[in-house]
Amino acid sequence: MDDVADIVIIGGGPVGGALALALRDGGFAVTLVEAREAAQPVGDPRPLALSYGSRLILERLGIWDALAPTAIDRIHVSQVGGFGRVALHAAEARVPNLGYVIDYAELQRALDGALRDTTPRYLRGARVTAIRDLGESAGVEFNMRGAIGMIATKLVVVADGGGFEGSTNVKVVDYHQSAVTTRVSSELPHRNTAFERFTRGGPLALLPSGEELAVVWTTDHHHARELCDLSATEFLMQLQRHFGNRLGAFAGCRTRSLFPLILRYASTVIRKRTVLVGNAAQTLHPVAGQGFNLGLRDAYELGGEIMRCDRHAIRSSAMLLAYRGRRRIDRGGGLRFTDSLVRLFSNDIAPLKVARGVGLTLLGCMPPAKNFVVRRMIFGARG
Fold first, then answer.
1. Number of Cβ atoms within 10 Å of the Cβ of 123
2. Model pTM score
3. Count of Cβ atoms closer than 10 Å to residue 91 Cβ
4. How far is Cα 1 from Cα 148, in angstroms, rounded to an integer?
């Protein structure tokens, strides 16, 4: 089962799928390799927070109209047990919405549908086992339902988080935290407002999702496990105690899931004829919802860089260096921004709590500063 291609994309998730769609009109022979079987359902229960900038990318890729996300028009930021808060508004930022909330599974289904029509070389159920140097090309070895194959290609794009495996240039920061996700109903309507509430153990996010609220509660591993083991009634009582009563009483807790959290990133995203994007390049803490948006910008900008090349230049180091240069500021800014928020807000140190309160209050009183923060949340560090 040997083949040749101009570009092999490893990982058919949202980032890899977006890159394949970005390249569909370029005349390149693109092969998408995905470990999931065609009939395997997408069961990831985590909500995705899309920025308005990501909406623009998905519109250009032609799949936005297939989605039914919930808009975020306002973001309310506060801290438990301390003063200071700030509200960010779409109207003040002069954008239709600040962002959107969508189920991971819904986005994946829309991408899969578009890829079936535009990417004929889509290998499902193929697990990549190695990337080889073949001299003038790279070789992607894979196992597809027991059959061993290899694809010789000019460029390999790793868009699967498993791309970290076997890599020697990966940095890992363990936050000693997990995220508990679920959905709840509230007595009062959310009015398309997202809430980021900083607690001693980590941020508690409530995101509008249809008529419900998607909960992403970050805390230490032990407390996270306790939250998952509580009865629905006890969990809602804990949620009420940490969040407060601004949405009235909570009810209707769905199944809870738990995900350990780390910061994991490659110190360099390019190797010989290989580039890392999305979760293969960096896995971020979910605070401020930046991870997927950063990965989507990786895919879109790499697609643009490739589309400006001819078929022979895509294997050149010059193209990869140009891509790395274009992504350096945005990627570095996203890593520093989320890491700083976790370190600054995931504690109960009195002087820091006062400083946080002062900072949130000042930010709320300074429209230029608010606009600066909002644009970078929407469009990245280059926004």
1. 21
2. 0.93
3. 10
4. 7
Give average pLDDT by consecutive 10-residue segment, the chain, 383 residues.
88 95 93 81 74 97 96 94 89 94 92 86 92 93 94 95 64 94 97 94 95 96 97 97 95 94 93 94 92 96 94 88 95 93 82 83 86 89 69
- Both tokens of residue 192? 């398309």
How many residues are recorded in the chain?
383
Of 111, 153, 145, 164, nearest to 277 by C-alpha is 164
> Which contiguous run of DSSP H or E holds residue 33?
strand 30-34
As a 3-state breakdown, the chain gives helix, strand, coil percent values, each rounded to 5, of 40, 35, 30
Alpha carbons 321 and 318: distance in angstroms, whole number? 5
- Which CATH homologous superfamily contains domain 2-46+105-170+264-345? FAD/NAD(P)-binding domain (3.50.50.60)
Residue boundaries of the structural domains of the chain = 2-46+105-170+264-345
Rounded CA gap, 139 and 4, in Å?
A: 9
Give the C-alpha separation, 367 to 377, whole Å. 15
Of 137, 169, 171, 143, the closest CA to residue 156 belongs to 137
Q: Which residue(s) pair with 86 in the sheet?
A: 77
User: In sequence order, what are the residues at sequence separation of 6 or more whose Cβ sits closer than 8 angstroms to the Cβ of residue 177?
Assistant: 201, 202, 218, 219, 220, 221, 224, 260, 261, 285, 342, 346
Phi-psi region of 155 (alpha: psi -120 to 50; beta: other; left: phi over 0): beta
CA separation for the pair 339, 332 (Å, rounded) = 11
Residue-wise over 132-163: b if at least 16 C-beta within 10 A, else e? eeeeebbbbebebeeeebbbbbbbbbbbbbeb
Residues 280 and 164: beta-carbon distance below 8 Å: yes
Angle at 122 between CA 116 and CA 123, to 5 degrees: 140
- The residues, ordered by sequence, that sit 6+ positions from 243 with a Cβ below 8 Å of its Cβ are 195, 197, 204, 206, 250
The C-alpha atoms of residue 182 and residue 257 are separated, in whole angstroms, by 7
